Amino acid sequence: VSSRPSVGKSFHLELDNVLRYPIKVPDNYQDLNTYLMTWLAKHHLLKDALSRLSRDVLRDLVDRARGNFRWLVNALYLLSSAVERGRRITLELLNRLPEDLRDLYTFALYQLDPEDLPCVMAIIALVLSGQDLRPDTLCSMFHLDDFNRFFRLNCTAFLSLKNNSICLSHETVEAYFNSG
After folding, report:
1. What is the mean pLDDT of the chain?
2. What average pLDDT score do residues 164-174 get?
3. Which residue has the higher pLDDT, 49 or 64?
4. Cα dist from 33 to 2, 27, 46, 65, 172, whole Å
5. For residue 23, is pLDDT > 90?
């Protein structure tokens, strides 16, 4: 079972009619809701932007994730990036978030500043090729004045920073870019 496509459903696993084992995939709505609230407590800009909208917006975000944590994480990063760039979070923007994770990755690419897109794609290509990338290396390669801001605004849907090394944020990112 990957990325919980069957949240809240039951199914049976049968192996050559010898073994029957019922599997119940738990509903993780509460886990997603807890994650969302914890995330918003750490990211005040987005919390303030969303608080101006209906209370149903937060519940809608969790519902639209359909059990997929990666979708919710990316949606929150995209919304935070929009707020930091000075865009207002509107119901229209929230409704434009695609429900499929692959489509959300595409949406994230289209949200990038056209001037930043080549740099982001080059960084992703380097990570996919197995390069060990560090922020200071990227700053000199791409002449970035403020790496943290650039990374936060442009890369967090695809990449993460762990132990001062840049890596894919999730295995689905590799599958997305390798699928052509």
Report:
1. 85
2. 96
3. 64
4. 20, 12, 16, 10, 22
5. no
> Are 7 and 66 in contact, with CB atoms under 8 Å apart?
yes
Q: What is the pLDDT of residues 72-103, one digit of tens each?
A: 999 999 988 888 888 887 777 888 899 999 99
CA 48, CA 45: separation in Å to the nearest integer? Answer: 5
Do 3 and 68 touch, CB atoms closer than 8 A?
A: yes
Measured in whole angstroms, the distance separating CA 61 from the mean position of its chain's CA atoms is 13
Residue 16 scores a pLDDT above 70:
no
Q: How many CB atoms lie within 10 A of CB 48?
A: 12
